[in-house]
Amino acid sequence: MALGEARGEYIARLDADDIAEPDRLAVQLEWLRGQDLEVCGGQLVRFGIKPGPVWYPESHAGVAHELMFRSSLTLSTLLARAEVMKALRFDERECAEEYDLLTRLAPRHAVGNCPATVARLRCHPGQTTRRLNPKKLKSQWRRRFAYFFETFPHAGLADFSCIHAAARDMPLPGDEPTERLGGWLVRLSRLPEAKARERMARRWTETCERSSARASLRDDYRRRILAAP
Asked: What is the pTM of this model?
């Protein structure tokens, strides 16, 4: 791979069909150094199908918590110290390479996203991530399981199940697992970033709607999720 040939202090990545903003590297490098990060992503805008901005958390804690549910940094915005990338590398056996890499990076290195838009992401019906979706979902399940229990080694299978259901947009069977999810979302939303708490609150509301949760339960946990730490 090209990683083995790289000789610079930093490595930046961009998918072949995406577009970097002209000042991307300068903006990210300044943010990485200013925030004392080892790995830096940024905000992006989709074009093609489903156009519009995509939000990613800025802080390391925000990245780590959001990673329980989805990739919280996209590879087309990745800028990292070379020694970090060369030590971990991509696992080409994993279909969800991005999610796999991030769930190995976050527990070991300082990761964040700069607030500036640094890339434009091309989305179209024939792209690889859509064609390989079933295999990708299976790969994500394995990595989410490993990442969750590495982060919370004393949690149980019922805890992981409710997190996984929220990540996959699945309903929960009754108030007990729904309330369990609410407790986890309160815990994961103890972040200084208001947008991160809003994302967790939306995740909670959508799960409650799918699960037909009681209104009192829904409103109580939504308030607690949105509360500033």
From this structure: 0.91
